[in-house]
Amino acid sequence: MGFYANKIFPWLLDVTEPKEMAEQRRLILRNVSGEVLEIGIGTGINLPFYPENIRTLTVIDPSDAVRPRAEKRADATGRTIKWHQGQGEQLPFDEGRFDTVVTVDVLCSVDNVDAVLRESYRVLKPGGRLHFLEHGITHEDKIRKWQIRLNSLSKVIAGGCELTRDIEKLIRDSGFIIDEFVRVSPFSGMNMLYTHIRGVAIKPV
Fold first, then answer.
1. What's the rounded Cα separation, in Å, for the pair 64 and 60?
2. pLDDT category, 14, cuts 50, 70, 90?
3. Full-prediction pTM beyond 0.90?
4. Disulfide-capable partner of 186 in 48, 49, 161, 192 (CB 3.0 to 4.6 Å)?
5. Where are the beta strands (DSSP E) in 10-123?
6. Can you give the residue ranges of every domain in the chain?
7. Rg (CA), the chain
């Protein structure tokens, strides 16, 4: 990974955070419980939003460049993160280990969404929960047109982030049972291109 990916992009992730995301992070993380795995922790921006009883998290990210920022946030929130460098498509964990898997703005940029969802399903216990807050292609025609036009640019400047993946369909087709599902209202300004869905999906018992 080059200088941009290692140094500039992690900084951009923090300074370009849409103001609306804080509330969405709070909502998706408010009920997480048990042993938690966060896939794609990035700079650790989710850490302040976890419930107080979640003191230790297992995390995985493909880039060690974001680790210092994530660990600084963990220290600030009094939490411990068990860091693993790796891909969501090949999780280095036993089947049925976790109560909860968390993904936030991860499925837009992974190489294989289906593989990440299969691995999430595998490492969850029966009855375990996938908490997701993800963006993808919208049902709103005007925004959809701009997502398609700017998708190639987004992949270049935003670490491979795609605007046009049908994340909702991929999750619904993955074998999980949808327990909660919300289409988040478009954000303001250019951030309207990042149309989010928020929800909880359960691995059947």
1. 10
2. low
3. yes
4. 192
5. 36-39, 56-61, 80-85, 98-104
6. 3-202
7. 16
